[in-house]
From TrEMBL:
SUPFAM superfamilies: Acyl-CoA N-acyltransferases (Nat). Residues 7-168 form the N-acetyltransferase domain. The lineage of its organism: Bacteria, Bacillati, Bacillota, Bacilli, Bacillales. This is N-acetyltransferase domain-containing protein. InterPro entries: Acyl_CoA_acyltransferase, GNAT_dom. It comes from Listeria cornellensis FSL F6-0969. PROSITE patterns: GNAT. Pfam families: Acetyltransf_1. GO terms for molecular function: acyltransferase activity, transferring groups other than amino-acyl groups.
Length: 168
């Protein structure tokens, strides 16, 4: 039985880079896989400010997940109607290591799914680095299926990215 969590989210703007940076620093393992080095302030800023081509700030939602003591324990980045109308992309669902494996990621996914569904989405999409086996397992368990593979470079590292989709 998953324990009941008291958490809340804070929508982030450029003024909140330090909050995003705090989560990124604790998730060093992810950034080592992604770019071969620890996260920088610039990585945190990019999570908040980078917007896909053809979208606006109004289409992108970046949230810090805060625990009972207002400590940041995760980051969520979602873009509505991307890459097409009706499909929302989860750019990021990142939890600090102490929170992983607790069932909390599944709870956050359910919140995103319900929110997207309320926003007229018919499916969700996420890109997962091929080397990130835990994440591939997590998303597969939630019913996401690999639609395609893409090559992507982050920092100095080139990756195969599994583009995974789930109808909702």
């Amino acid at each position: 039985m998953e324990k009941k969590r008291n958490y809340h989210v804070k929508f982030l703007t450029e003024k909140d880079v330090a909050l995003a940076e705090e989560v990124c620093a604790k998730c060093e393992d992810y950034f080592l896989i992604e770019q071969g080095m620890a996260a920088t302030e610039e990585n945190a800023r990019a999570i908040i400010t980078e917007i896909p081509k053809g979208k606006t700030k109004l289409d992108k939602f970046v949230m810090a997940v805060l625990d009972e003591a207002d400590k940041p324990i995760g980051l969520i980045d979602v873009v509505a109607d991307f890459p097409r109308k009706g499909q929302w992309i989860i750019g990021l669902l990142m939890l600090i290591p102490e929170e992983r494996g607790s069932g909390f990621g599944k709870v956050l996914y359910q919140v995103i799914k319900d929110w997207a569904s309320d926003g007229s989405a018919d499916s969700l999409r996420i890109g997962v680095l091929e080397e990130n086996n835990e994440a591939i397992g997590f998303w597969s368990h939630l019913g996401f299926e690999k639609e395609e593979e893409k090559r992507q470079t982050y920092g100095e590292k080139e990756h195969t990215v599994h583009v995974m989709v789930r109808n909702i």
